[in-house]
Write a structure and sequence with these properties.
Structural class: alpha/beta
Strand content: 5-15%
Number of domains: 2
Helix content: 40-55%
Radius of gyration: 17 Å
CATH architecture of the largest domain: 3-Layer(aba) Sandwich
CATH superfamily of the largest domain: HAD superfamily/HAD-like
Largest sheet: 6 strands, parallel
Protein backbone atom coordinates (compact mmCIF):
# COMPACT_ATOMS: atom_id res chain seq x y z
CA UNK A 1 0.00 0.00 0.00
CA UNK A 2 1.64 3.22 -1.14
CA UNK A 3 0.88 6.72 0.11
CA UNK A 4 0.64 10.03 -1.72
CA UNK A 5 3.40 11.87 0.10
CA UNK A 6 2.89 15.07 -1.90
CA UNK A 7 -0.12 15.96 0.26
CA UNK A 8 1.91 16.24 3.49
CA UNK A 9 3.58 19.44 4.67
CA UNK A 10 5.38 17.61 7.50
CA UNK A 11 6.76 14.10 7.94
CA UNK A 12 7.37 13.02 11.53
CA UNK A 13 9.58 9.96 12.04
CA UNK A 14 10.00 7.74 15.06
CA UNK A 15 13.63 6.67 15.36
CA UNK A 16 14.04 3.12 16.67
CA UNK A 17 12.54 0.56 14.31
CA UNK A 18 11.81 3.21 11.68
CA UNK A 19 14.99 5.11 10.84
CA UNK A 20 17.38 2.75 12.60
CA UNK A 21 17.28 -1.02 13.11
CA UNK A 22 17.87 -0.39 16.80
CA UNK A 23 14.94 -1.95 18.67
CA UNK A 24 16.93 -5.08 19.53
CA UNK A 25 19.92 -2.93 20.55
CA UNK A 26 17.75 -1.02 23.03
CA UNK A 27 16.00 -4.12 24.35
CA UNK A 28 19.35 -5.76 25.11
CA UNK A 29 20.60 -2.55 26.72
CA UNK A 30 17.66 -2.51 29.14
CA UNK A 31 18.44 -6.06 30.24
CA UNK A 32 22.17 -5.41 30.67
CA UNK A 33 21.56 -2.13 32.50
CA UNK A 34 19.39 -3.82 35.10
CA UNK A 35 21.83 -6.71 35.50
CA UNK A 36 24.85 -4.40 35.78
CA UNK A 37 23.15 -2.58 38.65
CA UNK A 38 22.29 -5.71 40.63
CA UNK A 39 19.02 -7.04 39.24
CA UNK A 40 18.16 -10.71 39.06
CA UNK A 41 17.49 -12.26 35.66
CA UNK A 42 13.75 -12.19 36.36
CA UNK A 43 13.82 -8.51 37.37
CA UNK A 44 15.83 -7.58 34.28
CA UNK A 45 13.44 -9.54 32.07
CA UNK A 46 10.47 -7.82 33.71
CA UNK A 47 11.99 -4.46 32.73
CA UNK A 48 12.49 -5.71 29.17
CA UNK A 49 8.89 -6.95 29.01
CA UNK A 50 7.62 -3.56 30.21
CA UNK A 51 9.84 -1.75 27.69
CA UNK A 52 8.56 -3.85 24.79
CA UNK A 53 4.95 -3.47 25.91
CA UNK A 54 5.32 0.32 26.06
CA UNK A 55 7.37 0.87 22.89
CA UNK A 56 7.97 4.57 22.22
CA UNK A 57 7.56 5.66 25.86
CA UNK A 58 10.43 7.54 27.50
CA UNK A 59 13.13 5.61 29.35
CA UNK A 60 12.59 8.00 32.31
CA UNK A 61 9.11 6.55 32.80
CA UNK A 62 10.32 2.98 32.33
CA UNK A 63 13.07 3.28 34.93
CA UNK A 64 10.70 4.96 37.38
CA UNK A 65 8.33 2.00 36.94
CA UNK A 66 11.21 -0.47 37.26
CA UNK A 67 12.31 0.95 40.60
CA UNK A 68 8.82 1.43 41.97
CA UNK A 69 7.09 -1.74 40.80
CA UNK A 70 9.75 -4.34 39.94
CA UNK A 71 12.50 -3.89 42.54
CA UNK A 72 10.23 -1.96 44.94
CA UNK A 73 12.66 0.84 45.66
CA UNK A 74 11.96 4.54 45.96
CA UNK A 75 12.53 6.09 42.50
CA UNK A 76 14.85 8.78 43.77
CA UNK A 77 16.54 11.15 41.36
CA UNK A 78 19.90 9.53 42.11
CA UNK A 79 18.59 5.99 41.51
CA UNK A 80 16.93 6.92 38.22
CA UNK A 81 20.03 8.82 37.08
CA UNK A 82 22.26 5.81 37.79
CA UNK A 83 20.05 3.70 35.52
CA UNK A 84 19.98 6.38 32.83
CA UNK A 85 23.77 6.74 32.83
CA UNK A 86 24.34 2.99 32.62
CA UNK A 87 21.73 2.63 29.88
CA UNK A 88 23.37 5.38 27.80
CA UNK A 89 26.74 3.66 28.16
CA UNK A 90 25.30 0.32 27.06
CA UNK A 91 23.56 1.92 24.07
CA UNK A 92 26.39 4.01 22.68
CA UNK A 93 28.29 1.40 20.67
CA UNK A 94 25.22 -0.40 19.37
CA UNK A 95 23.54 2.74 18.06
CA UNK A 96 26.66 3.85 16.24
CA UNK A 97 26.74 0.64 14.22
CA UNK A 98 23.12 -0.50 13.73
CA UNK A 99 21.74 -0.32 10.15
CA UNK A 100 20.05 2.80 8.80
CA UNK A 101 16.79 2.27 6.92
CA UNK A 102 17.25 1.74 3.19
CA UNK A 103 15.68 4.39 1.00
CA UNK A 104 16.07 7.24 3.49
CA UNK A 105 18.01 9.60 1.23
CA UNK A 106 15.81 8.72 -1.77
CA UNK A 107 12.74 9.50 0.33
CA UNK A 108 14.22 12.86 1.32
CA UNK A 109 14.85 13.66 -2.34
CA UNK A 110 11.27 12.68 -3.19
CA UNK A 111 9.75 15.02 -0.58
CA UNK A 112 11.60 18.35 -0.95
CA UNK A 113 8.41 20.24 -0.07
CA UNK A 114 8.02 18.58 3.35
CA UNK A 115 9.49 19.52 6.71
CA UNK A 116 11.12 16.45 8.27
CA UNK A 117 11.21 15.89 12.03
CA UNK A 118 12.41 13.06 14.29
CA UNK A 119 10.23 12.33 17.34
CA UNK A 120 11.69 9.58 19.50
CA UNK A 121 11.17 8.09 22.92
CA UNK A 122 14.96 8.12 23.25
CA UNK A 123 16.96 10.81 25.01
CA UNK A 124 16.94 14.02 22.97
CA UNK A 125 20.59 14.98 23.42
CA UNK A 126 21.69 11.40 22.75
CA UNK A 127 19.71 11.35 19.50
CA UNK A 128 21.18 14.68 18.38
CA UNK A 129 24.73 13.48 19.03
CA UNK A 130 24.08 10.16 17.31
CA UNK A 131 22.52 11.69 14.20
CA UNK A 132 25.39 14.17 13.91
CA UNK A 133 27.95 11.36 14.17
CA UNK A 134 26.11 9.29 11.57
CA UNK A 135 25.67 12.25 9.19
CA UNK A 136 21.87 12.04 9.35
CA UNK A 137 21.00 15.27 11.15
CA UNK A 138 20.99 17.36 7.96
CA UNK A 139 18.04 15.41 6.57
CA UNK A 140 15.73 16.64 9.32
CA UNK A 141 15.14 20.35 8.87
CA UNK A 142 12.32 20.25 11.42
CA UNK A 143 14.65 19.10 14.20
CA UNK A 144 15.38 16.08 16.38
CA UNK A 145 13.23 15.65 19.50
CA UNK A 146 13.06 13.11 22.32
CA UNK A 147 12.75 12.61 26.05
CA UNK A 148 12.42 13.79 28.74
CA UNK A 149 9.46 15.43 26.94
CA UNK A 150 7.00 12.79 25.75
CA UNK A 151 5.70 12.63 22.18
CA UNK A 152 2.34 14.19 23.02
CA UNK A 153 4.01 17.19 24.62
CA UNK A 154 6.39 17.70 21.70
CA UNK A 155 3.62 17.45 19.10
CA UNK A 156 1.42 19.98 20.90
CA UNK A 157 4.36 22.39 21.19
CA UNK A 158 5.60 21.99 17.59
CA UNK A 159 2.08 22.28 16.15
CA UNK A 160 1.58 25.50 18.11
CA UNK A 161 4.88 26.92 16.85
CA UNK A 162 4.14 25.98 13.25
CA UNK A 163 7.13 23.64 12.98
CA UNK A 164 4.65 20.82 12.39
CA UNK A 165 2.21 21.98 9.72
CA UNK A 166 -0.90 20.03 8.78
CA UNK A 167 -1.55 17.83 6.94
CA UNK A 168 1.24 15.82 8.51
CA UNK A 169 2.19 12.14 8.54
CA UNK A 170 3.67 10.30 11.52
CA UNK A 171 5.71 7.21 10.58
CA UNK A 172 6.09 4.83 13.52
CA UNK A 173 6.26 1.24 14.71
CA UNK A 174 4.53 1.22 18.11
CA UNK A 175 1.08 1.56 19.59
CA UNK A 176 2.14 4.75 21.35
CA UNK A 177 3.29 6.27 18.06
CA UNK A 178 -0.20 5.69 16.65
CA UNK A 179 -1.90 7.06 19.77
CA UNK A 180 0.26 10.19 19.83
CA UNK A 181 -0.35 10.81 16.12
CA UNK A 182 -4.09 10.30 16.55
CA UNK A 183 -4.34 12.66 19.52
CA UNK A 184 -2.44 15.36 17.61
CA UNK A 185 -4.47 15.03 14.41
CA UNK A 186 -1.68 13.55 12.28
CA UNK A 187 -2.14 10.76 9.75
CA UNK A 188 -0.21 7.61 10.64
CA UNK A 189 1.50 4.72 8.90
CA UNK A 190 2.88 1.69 10.73
CA UNK A 191 6.19 0.11 9.63
CA UNK A 192 6.29 -3.60 10.37
CA UNK A 193 9.77 -4.92 9.49
CA UNK A 194 11.53 -3.96 12.74
CA UNK A 195 8.61 -3.52 15.13
CA UNK A 196 8.57 -5.24 18.54
CA UNK A 197 4.78 -5.03 18.92
CA UNK A 198 3.82 -8.65 19.54
CA UNK A 199 0.48 -8.72 17.68
CA UNK A 200 0.99 -5.77 15.37
CA UNK A 201 -1.21 -7.34 12.69
CA UNK A 202 -4.18 -7.56 15.02
CA UNK A 203 -3.59 -4.08 16.42
CA UNK A 204 -3.33 -2.45 12.99
CA UNK A 205 -6.35 -4.32 11.68
CA UNK A 206 -8.47 -3.33 14.68
CA UNK A 207 -7.50 0.34 14.33
CA UNK A 208 -7.59 0.28 10.50
CA UNK A 209 -4.00 1.54 10.34
CA UNK A 210 -2.07 1.69 7.07
CA UNK A 211 0.86 -0.75 7.20
CA UNK A 212 4.04 -0.77 5.14
CA UNK A 213 7.07 -2.98 5.58
CA UNK A 214 9.71 -0.25 5.79
CA UNK A 215 10.68 3.27 4.75
CA UNK A 216 11.63 2.22 1.23
CA UNK A 217 8.03 1.07 0.70
CA UNK A 218 6.88 4.69 1.11
CA UNK A 219 8.43 5.38 -2.27
CA UNK A 220 5.88 3.07 -3.87
Amino acid sequence: MSLDLTQYKTLVFDCDGVLLDSNVVKTQAYFRTAKNLGASDSQAQALVDYHVRLGGISRYHKFDYYLREIVQQAPTQAAVQALLDEFSRELEVGLLHCPVAEGLTALRAATPHANWMVLSGGDQEEIRRLFALRNLAGLFDGGLFGSPDNKDTVLVRELASGNVALPALFIGDSQYDYQAANRAGLDFVFLSDWTEVADWQGFCQAKQIKVLANLAALLG
